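Hello forum,

I keep getting stuck at the same step: I have a sequence, I want structure tokens, and every attempt I make locally crashes halfway through. Rather than fight my setup again tonight, could one of you with a working pipeline run this one for me? It's a single chain of 369 residues.
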Amino acid sequence: MKAIYATMLICLFALMIQCKSNQSNTTTSKTYMTQDTGWVELFNGKDLSGWTASENASTWTVTDGVMQAYGKRSHLYYSGEYLRDSFKNFDLIATIRTHHLANSGVYYHTTYQQEGWPNKGIEAQVNNSHVGEGNYVEFKKGGSLYSYRNIYRRFIPDSTWYEMHIKVEDRHVQIWINGQQTVDFIAPKDGKGMEHDMVRGTIALQGHDTLSKTQFKSVKIRRLSEDLVTNQDSHSYGPWYDSLKVYNGKQYISLDLDPSGDLNESEVLKSTFESGVNGAVVKDLSHINELSTIKSPIVFRGVRISAQQIKSIKKESLAFADYVIGKCKSLAEAIELIQSGWINVLSINGESINVKNANALLDLAKKTM
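Reply #2:
Ran it on my machine without issues. Output:
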């Protein structure tokens, strides 16, 4: 994560803002597994009975009890006996393994279509090391609720079996990867900003492209009451955050780096879940050891250093930080920090880039990237 994309840079400069909220609109489950009753396995471990593949059906095979997608784009829709009319509210746990550069996904509330990406339904992203194709760069990593709550941090190694748990209760969607929560999302009551209705449908697995090799060992589901209703509305952080979500959808990564440094891990997670803007715990150099206590894999780690400190510290001591924020009081200090080659992000007196000399700093930063 120490390497930073140019498209990220401008966003990071603009997003050194503090986002605190004193009101929670979601209830986060304490465990990702609930009582194991009512579960049914959708994959029989032998063949594709109960599943219907779209275009390029040969992409899907079953070998040694493992369902595999490897080939041209194809989506595998569940059509078996447990579907009945459709799934609405449910728990789903998929046991997944992706290989290098693989991209896939688990769709829900979708319906069969013969060609193309599903027009209906919402996708839980499956991607540990896929980087995109052609001019498109894919930043959204596994555990994302695609486009609505994006996770920009990879924390599952390639070629490793892991569990993705998706829980849908009306407008409330939660995702866990190996027990680590990545999404706690409540869709707005009016549906504004939602590309698809969150109503009901079937499950679909994605075969993305010829470079993507993805395997599924189990896909089990249990129905939850269809009478569940989410009374809360989605949390609003105002026009600023609403605009950030639009940019996220256009492949600009926005991170809240908390320049003042008084947000703890639970507060960062709360903000990330509610706002859709990924956050970081940021500490001064004197408190850098506190970053080692962070447990959530989706919380970024940042450390602030000054122009004076870069002269007395070894760069290797900052290697575990996702972002190194240079804090300065003048353009001269800013230039010294940027030219050191250590800095990912620059902060002037804890303020965002909308300050005097911003254009000069941005131009200098672009030249150094």
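The longest strand covers residues 213-223. If your local run keeps crashing, start a new thread with the error log.
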